[in-house]
Amino acid sequence: MANSAGSKKRARQATKRNKHNSQIRAKVRTFIKKVSYALDAGNKEEAQGGYVAMQKMIDQSVSKGLMHKNQAARKKARINAQIKAL
Q1: Residues 13-64: tens digit of each pLDDT
Q2: pLDDT for 60-73, tens place per residue?
Q3: Are 69 and 62 in contact (CB under 8 A)?
Q4: Is residue 57 within 8 Å of 28, Cβ to Cβ?
Q5: What is the four-CA torsion angle of 81, 34, 45, 50, rounded to 10 degrees?
Q6: Which of 3, 34, 43, 74 is the most exposed place for a label (fewest CB within 10 A)?
Q7: Is the pLDDT of residue 1 over 90?
Q8: 3-state secondary structure the chain
Q9: Are the beta carbons of 70 and 28 closer than 8 angstroms?
């Protein structure tokens, strides 16, 4: 447990940031799922539209340090390849 005033503040900040970051991560996962559901349905137009929004969310999460840039590139490349294969 935090004892000093500074460590108590840091604990508060950590919980606040954790909540914010988990919301962003959940939003990114939701966008990825939307695109994958469109791919499963064979709807190329919907998948392409969702891909643009998903790409923006992934890039934002990378800039905030929530996702590694190589992981983001890998996810985008794999989903883009699936869209092109339709």
Answers
A1: 999 999 999 999 999 999 999 999 999 999 999 999 999 999 999 999 999 9
A2: 999 999 999 999 99
A3: yes
A4: yes
A5: -80
A6: 3
A7: no
A8: CCCCHHHHHHHHHHHHHHHHHHHHHHHHHHHHHHHHHHHHHCCHHHHHHHHHHHHHHHHHHHHCCCCCHHHHHHHHHHHHHHHHHC
A9: no
